[in-house]
Amino acid sequence: MFDLVAQSILSGIGVGAIYGLIGIGFCVIYNASGIVNFAQGAFVMLGGMLTHAGMTKLGLPLPLAAIGAIAIVALSGVALERIVVRPLWNRGSTMFVMILATLAAQIVVERLTLIAAGDQPRTLPVFTDLPPLRVFGFAINFQFLWIVGCSAIVIAGLALFFSSTKTGKAMRACSINRDAAALQGIPVSRMLALAFALSAGLGAVAGILITPTQYTAFNVGVPFAISGFIAAIVGGFGRPLGAFMGGILLGVAQALAIVFLGAAFKNVAALSILLLFLFVRPTGLLGSAK
Amino acid sequence: MNLPTIISAKGRGNLAAWLLWGLAAAFVAYTFVAGGYLIAVLHFACIYTVFVTGLNIFMGFTGQVSFGHNAFAAIGGYTSAVLTATYGWDPLTAGVLGLAGALLCALIIGYPVLRLRGHYLAMATLAIGLIVYEVAVQWDSVTHGYMGISGIPPLGIGRFTVTSDRGILIFLMIVAGLALLSAAGIRRSRLGRAFVAAAGSEDAARALGIDVARYKLIAFMISAAYAAIAGSLFVHAVGFVSPEVFGLPMVVLSFTMLYVGGIGTVGGPALGAIIISVLPESFRTFKDYQDLAYGAALIVILIYAPRGLASLPELWAKWRRRAA
Amino acid sequence: MSLLRLDGITRRFGGLVALDNVSLEIPGQGLSAVIGPNGAGKTTLFNMISGFMPPSAGRVQFDGADITGQAPETIAKRGLIRTFQLVQLFEGLTVLENVKIGCHLHTRGGLMAALLPTRAARAEEAAVEAEARRLLEETGLAAQAETFAAVLPYGQKRLLEITRALAARPKLLLLDEPAAGLNRQETDALAALLRRIAATGTAILLIEHDMNLVMNVADEIAVLDFGRLIAKGKPDEVRRNPDVIAAYLGTEEAAHV
């Protein structure tokens, strides 16, 4: 039993890192604009689906297909910002209208994917096809290492981007005070587009990393988005690092729920954690960023 | 309250609204006489009129947000389906029990949820819809999971059942009419005034002695009741239920109807439900294209005509200015 | 016997003391006023009284009951009705509907009355309609009854907020700077209206910046400065009080006092 629990915790950390990446995607857009993008799950789904399409339709090798997919998804993030968010933003729409519009965009992307690719679930080959490593009696498969490694690289890269590059600093300025940033000559609207591109790219990375261990289909987006949102809430909305930790916490909690309650309760457990946090501690474990 | 103000709370766009009401009435009359496939479309429109009217009481009147009212439709619908198809109950008794269940859930959920605001409120309500969906999928022994429940008997009381398409349409139109009448009654009553006061300014409402938290909960429960009734009507009219029936696309679809008809107006939900049900059907496309069209239409409406049909005259004026 | 009694009201925001041990009694009739320079803590005091913010220390008693820390709607139910410095109307509704909402407290109808308009329910609705129209007549807004509140000129918005508060049949009416943004003529009309309201037996407590209005209508004046009560008395006494003159010295209001 102990082995099973420990093994579940390990796999929970892997899935949790994915939730964390998606959660960071929420934070990036939220910090730049105050918008919670309910279409975040579409990026995750597109990442996996497009990589699969690149490999099977174009015969590309996995790395090339993945990079291509990330680029296309990032562009679709910009498209979402230009076509849906920007016009509403300019009109000063309410937060609720913005949520509704991004949720509608989620459905549109989902249904377009369904029409283009059908409803069959797809999967990707594991990145390194070797038997799992044995460490202290635990099996650690290579996809887990890929997930943890890539997440670490992505987070380090983001940290570097926000702390050391001019653009990254400008985006942070926008998150602190948009009007002041605009007065300083920072092109706020371009930062918004960039935030969507970045966030979409993050979602795509998460989708590509997780697909080999599960599957992807037109409708996997919303559950992933919810998990990412929970991660962001648990971490204190707007804190990227908090979101990542929140994701890992959620992943582990979910894995334990599967062990003790059965696989059917995976999503119910996650949603219950969400409600619990919303009711008891909506500012997250660390307190909200703003 | 006279009719035009019922149709358009803002007083503008009356002509366009009257025109559309006329067209809608003509369509209903034509369908009723001609019969055939379009009758099923009108069944759908009537059921959604009930659902969207409830949503409108909570969102339009009371100014709150819910992305999870499909949960209450699912509770009503599944209770009706299981009790009538599996246990052979009478549809009316089963429906009443579903309604009571939805009300109880709304009370238990509403109390903590309605203290939330903004994104948190939106996400919490969305989560409630998804939890009910998950339960419908996973509680296999009762709901039959993705397979769903078929063989649900038609509407009826005791030995009297309504089976003909026209008969069902008449029944559903009466129910939809009652839903609209009650919404109109609520809107012009003391209760409705407390709702719109909470939407207008919570501080001012409280300063006048209105217990805003309590009225939000009442509005939530009333709208949940409408949703549960719509859910029960749906499973009896179609004879089948599966988790997908009350999935997330239902939420987007009902918002599209609400926004097309005009959020906050009394008659808007009916107009929105008829237009949105009829338009895609006239292309006779597949289900996938429908949800796509609803989603895209909702985005376009939110961007260009956020007050629904009431914004038409404004758009028309703008277009004329540009043309001149 | 005083209607409202404040006992050592203190409010701290972090290290800042916005109200410092304020004790005050407001009688059950006539017009009382709280004045003071900007930032003296007047609106904070109103928020403590009306329940929108709990005091850090001290008690509020109204009509013989301790109302400290009670919810705004509970306090309103006891007959203490306030208006806001930034007018809070139901902008999307008509003037008449705004006033009808004010009648909430002394009417009963719930869901049953909404769905089944019985004779009693209809009678109550008719009474609400009649009372709202009568009040609009009294405050001079009758002609605007069917207008949307959002499109009223500013002065009439202020007037509508007072009318709506009257519909709640207050024992004590709290007015937060009712003359702010009004021109001379409108202020005079407001003064006349306030006197008429007070004459019907409704006690009024107002916070005001406009010295003309206060000196003109108030029976009793209390002066706040930096969160402390520095003087109270009849307008003439307050006007001559050296502490009050010092507090206002160098501010714009000094000229008026």
What does this structure look like?
The complex is a heterotrimer of chains A (290), B (324) and C (257). Helix content of chain A is 74%, strand content 2%. Chain A is mainly α. Chain A has a single domain (2-113, 141-280), classed as ABC transporter involved in vitamin B12 uptake, BtuC. Chain B has 324 residues and is mainly alpha-helical. Chain B has one domain (3-250): ABC transporter involved in vitamin B12 uptake, BtuC. In chain B, helix 3 (37-61) runs antiparallel to helix 13 (268-283) and helix 4 (70-86) crosses helix 11 (212-238). The two termini of chain B are 38 Å apart. The relative contact order of chain B is 0.18. Mean pLDDT of chain B is 84; it is low at 1-12. With 257 residues, chain C is of the alpha/beta class. Chain C has a domain at 2-79 and 170-255: Rossmann fold. Chain C has helices at residues 42-50, 72-77, 95-102, 111-115, 119-139, 154-167, 184-199, 211-217, 235-240, 242-248; strands spanning 2-13, 16-27, 31-35, 57-62, 65-66, 80-82, 172-176, 203-207, 220-225, 228-233. In chain C, strand 1 (2-13) and strand 2 (16-27) form a beta hairpin. In chain C, helix 5 (119-139) packs across helix 6. The relative contact order of chain C is 0.18. At the B-C interface, helix 8, helix 9, helix 10 and helix 11 of B face helix 2, helix 3, helix 4 and helix 5 of C.
